[in-house]
Amino acid sequence: MPNRLGKITVAGLGPGSPDLFLNPAIDAIREADVVIGYKYYFQFIESFLKKGTECMDTGMRQEVQRAEKAFELAETGKDVVVISSGDAGIYGMASLVFEMAEKTQSKVELKVIPGISAFQAVAAKLGAPLSHDLVILSLSDLLTSYALIEKRIKAAAMGDFVTAIYNPKSNKRYWQLYRLRELFLEEREETTPVAIVRQVARAEEQITLTNLRDFDPEMVDMFSLVIVGNSQSYISGDRFITPRGYYSKEEQEGRPGPLIMQESFRTIAAELKEMDLPLETKWILLHCIHTSADFELPEILKVQNNAAPKLNEYLQKGGVIITDVTMVQSGIRKKACERMGVEIKCYLHDPRTMELSVKHGITRTQAGIRLAVEEHPDALYVFGNAPTALIELTDLMRSKNIQPAGIIAAPVGFVNVKESKHRVKSFTDLPAVIIEGRKGGSTLAATIVNAILSLEDAYDLKPGRDV
User: Which of 294, 308, 415 shows the shortest CA–CA distance to 363?
Assistant: First the structure.
C-alpha cells in the first residue's frame, strides 16, 4: 500500500474552446499526475499540462475502463484528473466515478469541478432561449431504452418546457429525431422556434434557426445540439428568446386582455391542430372561434384568392374600410387602424343615405353602399348584417365594373343571406372571406377584419396587440 491515497478529480472542460474552461479545472489539470479521458479532448489541454503528466486514453465508449484506471492509479497515490466535455455531471463521467466508488468501497478522495455544458454555451450564442423552465434530453439509447426516452419526450412536450436535446442523431440512430418532432407537433404550434447548433464554441460552429414546421432532422449530426422553445419563445432576427415573464407581469397588471386572449388562442389551436389549413386561414378561424365559441366555423368559413395577406397589404398602405352597419364599424380595432392609417366609414347615417333610400325605394344599407361605391370603389367592403347591401355591391360590381380591394361577407339571417354570399364567389379573382350559410353577424365580420389587421402576429401566435 502507498503512504497515501491519491485523489480523483472529475473536471468538465466546457464545450471545447479553452477560452471557456473554468479556472478550477485548469488548476486541477496543472496539478495532475495523470489525466484520463477521450483522446480528442487532449488537444485542448496541452498548454496546461505540467512536465511529466501522463495522458491516458481508453478509447471512445470505454467510460467504465477509464473509471477503473482512475481508481487503480489513485490507489497507488497518483492525483488523477478525469476529463469530460461540457459539465462532468451532465452526461459526463461524474456519476460513473461516484457509483464505482460506492460499489468498490474505495476510500479515494473524489471531487467534481463543474464546466460549462453545451446547452449553456449554445444558449449564450443564441441569445436567451433558456430563460424559463427547461428539460435536457439525450436521445442516445445506449444506456436508456427508447421506450423510456419517448415517455420523457412526451412529458417535455406536454409540459411546455424549453427542451435541449443532446445526442440527437448518429449514423445508426436517425429516426428518433423525426419521432421527437412528430410528438412535439402534437402539443406545440408548428411555429415554435427550433435552433440547431453544431460544434458550438469551435472553429466549425454553425447555427441554424428554424421552427417545428420547417425543422429538418437531416441537418443534424452527432456534433449538434438542438433546442426547442416553449409556447412563449420567439425568434427576433438572429436571436432566440424565451421570455422570463417580466413584461407579461406588467401586461397582466395593466393589460390582462391580451394574455387571456393568447391563452384562449392556444386552447382553440389545440383543437384545430389536425386541420390542414394555411396559417393565415387558421389565424382568422382562431379569432372567429374566440369570438363565437362556434367550432362549426371551420366547415363554413372560406377564404378566397389568398385574401388575408392581400387585404393586409392593402390596409398596411392606409386603405379604406366600408361597413354596412355601424356595429361592424365599432368592432374594428381603432388602435390598429390608427397604426396603419386606415379609415373606416359607414354611410348608414349619412343624410344622403335616407334621401336615396326614399327616392329609389331601397333599404338604407343598400343606399349607403351606392354612396360608398361612388366615393370609394376600391375599398375593403365588410358586411355583418345586411344581405341586401351585399347584393347591392355585387350588382354594382357587375354593372359598373368596379373592383373593390376585397369583401368580408358575413351577413346573418334567413332571407337572401345564403344567396348574397354565393354571389361573392362568382368573382373568382376577388380577395374575399365568406361565412357560408345563415351564420355571420357584425361581431364576426369585425373580428375577421381584426384578424387581417394583425396578420403579422399570426406567426408567433400572439393576438391582442391592439386590444
Answer: 415
For the CA atoms of 59, 63, 65, 68, what is the dihedral angle to 10 degrees? 140
Per DSSP, which regions of 176-311 are E strands?
A: 193-198, 206-211, 224-228, 234-236, 239-241, 301-304
Overall average pLDDT of the 126-137 stretch: 94
Q: Are 186 and 157 spatial neighbours (Cβ–Cβ below 8 Å)?
A: yes
**69 three-class SS:** helix
Residue 433 parent element (H or E): strand 432-435
Cell of 151: 415517455
Q: How far apart are CA 143 and CA 344, in angstroms?
A: 64
Element (H, E) at 160: none
Strand (E) positions, 51-200?
54-56, 79-84, 109-113, 127-128, 134-138, 162-166, 193-198
Helix, strand or coil, per DSSP, at residue 157: helix
First to last CA, the chain: 78
Element (H, E) at 300: helix 297-300
Question: Which grid cell is 287?
Answer: 379569432
How far apart are the C-alpha atoms of 289 and 438, rounded to whole Å? Answer: 16
pTM of the entire predicted model: 0.57
Mean pLDDT of 215-235: 93
Distance (Å) of CA 341 to CA 268, 316, 378: 31, 8, 16
Angle, helices 442-453 vs 307-316, to 10°: value is: 70
pLDDT of residue 2: 54
Q: How many residues does the chain have?
A: 467
Residue 34 near residue 73, CB atoms below 8 Å: yes
| Burial grade of 226 (CB within 10 A; 0-12, 13-18, 19 or more) | buried
Give catalytic status of residue 290 as yes or no: yes
How large is the average pLDDT for residues 151-176?
A: 94
Q: Name 334's Cβ contacts closer than 8 Å, sequence gap at least 6.
A: 466
Mean pLDDT over 290-301 rounds to: 93
pLDDT one-digit tens code per residue, 244-270: 876 655 554 555 556 677 778 888 888
Burial classification of residue 358, based on how many CB atoms lie within 10 Å of its CB (0-12 exposed, 13-18 middle, 19 or more buried)? exposed
Q: Which of 132, 290, 349, 360 is catalytic?
A: 290
Over the range 318-339, which residues count as b (16 or more CB within 10 Å of their CB) and which as e?
A: ebbbbbbbebbbebbbeebbee
Percent of the chain topping pLDDT 90: 75
